[in-house]
Amino acid sequence: MNKVRLSKSCVGKEEKEAVLKVLDHEFLGMGAEVQNFENEIKSYIGTDKEVICVNTGTSALHIALACLDIGLGDEVLVPSLTYVASYQAISATGAIPISVDVKEETLFMDIEDAKKRVTEKTKAIMPVHYASNSQEMLEINTFAQANNLRVIEDAAHSFGCKREGQIIGYEGDVICFSFDGIKNITSGEGGAVLSNDPTFIQRVKDARLLGVEKDTEKRYAGQRSWDFDVTHQGFRYHMSNIYAAIGSTQLKKIDVIAAKRQSIAKTYVTELRGVDGITLLDFDYENIVSHIFVLKAKNRDLLREHLLSHNIECGIHYKPNHMLSKYKSDYVLPITEKIYEEILTLPCQFDLSTEDQTRVINAIKDFYSAC
Ligand SMILES: *Cc1c(COP(=O)(O)O)cnc(C)c1O
């Protein structure tokens, strides 16, 4: 029996041809391909926000925080249940990630718990679109406004998802996407920062190129800056033409990719809804494009072993960050700690076959009917 993989990169001959074109052109760094990709993202989302591409989703989060002048001694509210990238991006600025609990039904940041953690040092809040759901963003934005906090959305899981009938990215303060190898679309590695705050956007544009002022504008015109000024800390976080060519090719296929990921998720929902032992997350699967398919499972570790014995990979997203040595908190997060024992991620990737998904579903049903 072949191994059913949890996730994988899925690229075709179009992506390979796009990369070869860039290689043939011998302009590998940041140039016209990146500008194209940014414009394409903007028109796909249908937003008047600026889109700034960078080399990873983690750098998108880091550069966003840095360009909002969040730094030493500041506090940023963030759900503990996220990839360590969110935490590393915060601590890289010198700020302190303040762990917040999640809601049991959706595993989204619990706004009531966030309220308890606000101090005079709190500068920002970083909600995470966990498993692609961001239904609760409205209450986060309202809370942030009332407390004068900047909002940096970690939307690494939710490129191509909809809310209120519109593609994610159309509203909000600062939104960060990831295009790493296994995300909804990939640019090989990559990320993007979206905002319509013009001062902030100019800072991000400069900061991704070592803080060299107006270097983006020069490079898009195929030029370099020789006489320039630098006023802020910058990074080497710009996206390369190679990445952008892959991303732009993937974006052209997004409707097909999204439809497939949605159909995988909906099949899991239909098939597993009635299974005693399984609890599904309370998501609007009509509007979500699942990056990871997460559910809660009774006897999770035994189920996981059972699936592995059938050559089916599964995952646990994520080990809570407040349980890591670097980010240990001196308070408990009861829901996060409870659901950490229950969550399981099932295979979900563009080229998952119907047969392989059926194998996953049947293995789960067999496990619980034998319980
Ligand atoms: C993937 C991911 C990131 C970081 O993106 P990279 O492009 O891999 O650096 C950040 N947050 C979450 C929740 C992610 O899943």
Task: Give a brief description.
The chain is an alpha/beta fold. Helices cover 39% and strands 13% of the residues.
Describe the structure using short key phrases.
371 residues, alpha/beta, seven-stranded mixed β-sheet, three-stranded antiparallel β-sheet, 12 strands, 13% strand, binds pyridoxal-5'-phosphate
What's the structural blueprint in terms of helices and strands?
Elements: H1 13-25, H2 32-45, E1 50-54, H3 57-67, E2 75-79, H4 84-92, E3 96-100, H5 111-116, E4 122-125, H6 137-146, E5 150-154, E6 162-163, E7 166-167, E8 174-178, E9 191-195, H7 198-207, H8 215-220, H9 241-252, H10 254-272, E10 278-280, E11 293-297, H11 300-309, H12 334-339, E12 343-346, H13 354-370
Parallel strand pairs: 2-3, 2-4, 4-5, 5-8
Antiparallel strand pairs: 1-9, 6-7, 8-9, 10-11, 11-12
Helix pairs in contact: 1-9, 2-9, 3-4, 10-13
The chain binds pyridoxal-5'-phosphate (PLP).
